[in-house]
Structures are given as C-alpha cells and as structure tokens.
Design goal:
mainly alpha; two-stranded antiparallel sheet; about 55% helix
C-alpha cells in the first residue's frame, strides 16, 4: 500500500527547463536544482580549497583538526576516519591526512591511539578558522542570514524528498 501524499504542500507542477547559465530572474523556478546546487558546490569548494592551499593546508586537514578539537573526549584515530570518510574524496584520504598532521606536528597519538591536537595544531586550527570565516563572508556577500537559512531549508527538504520512500 502506498503512503498517502499530503497534497496541501504540493503546488502546481512547474515544467523543467534545461540548465541555462544565462537564465534570467523571471523564470528561475524552471531551472534544475541539481545543476545549480552542483555548480554552487563546485565553486564554493574550489574557492575554499584555493584559499587553504595558499597556506599549504587542505580542506580534509581542516576537517580533521576541527573534529579532534570538537570532540568531548579524544577520539580514536579510527573514529576520526569513520566519521570523516563520507566527506572525503576517497576511502583512504582521512587516514592519510591524519598521518600528514602527525608528521607536521599538529596532532599526536596517545598510547591508546586517541588523537589529540598539539599546541601547534590548535594554533593552526584557530588560524584556519579565521581564514574560513573570511571565505564564508565572501561566499555570503549580498545574502542575508534569513535568505541563507531559507535556501538551506529548501535544499534539506529536497534531499529528504528524494532519499525518502516517495512514490511517484
């Protein structure tokens, strides 16, 4: 038996137009979200990674520093790998990053293989946080917090719509 659809939230179906980088603001509802969200993801990620590269840091290195810093207790090396691998470009990237940060002296392992920030690692994390905040300001220029929140809510709803058991 198919679940009933709540028709109170469904509006008239909008025809899907092909992706058009030159589309005007008079018909954005016809543009494919996959194209524009993919373009936004690629542009923002490239901009952030370029900014980090100028100071010889990668985005995954920043993720690891934040994950280790934000943990209520020191996570194991394996916990960090497991939690961050879904974000990474491959299954071995986070393990390599931990090795890089250990070599750089920004992380240390205790005898139980739990990962800790060193003083140098914490100083780097703080510097990186400042840089990422500056990058975020560039990305968000001309966008109010309310607009940003609305856009995120829409994207989250779209993800839920396609990842759920929605019958067509």
């Amino acid at each position: 038996m198919k679940p009933q659809t709540d028709t109170t939230t469904i509006t008239a179906t909008t025809d899907q137009a092909p992706a058009d980088p030159a589309a005007t603001d008079d018909a954005p509802a016809t543009q494919p979200v996959g194209y524009w969200s993919g373009l936004a993801h690629a542009a923002v990620t490239r901009h952030l990674r370029d900014a980090l590269a100028r100071i010889d840091v990668t985005q995954p290195q920043y993720w690891v520093l934040n994950r280790v810093h934000g943990a209520p207790t020191a996570p194991s090396r394996e916990e960090v790998v497991t939690q961050l691998t879904p974000l990474a470009d491959g299954p071995h990237e986070i393990a390599r990053v931990i090795g890089q940060l250990l070599h750089r002296g920004w992380l240390r392992l205790d005898t139980g293989q739990h990962v800790h920030l060193t003083d140098a690692g914490e100083a780097a994390r703080v510097r990186l946080r400042e840089l990422v905040t500056e990058v975020r300001a560039v990305v968000h220029r001309g966008i109010s917090d309310a607009e940003y929140v609305a856009a995120l809510k829409v994207l989250r709803t779209m993800v839920a719509n396609v990842e759920g058991d929605v019958a067509f």
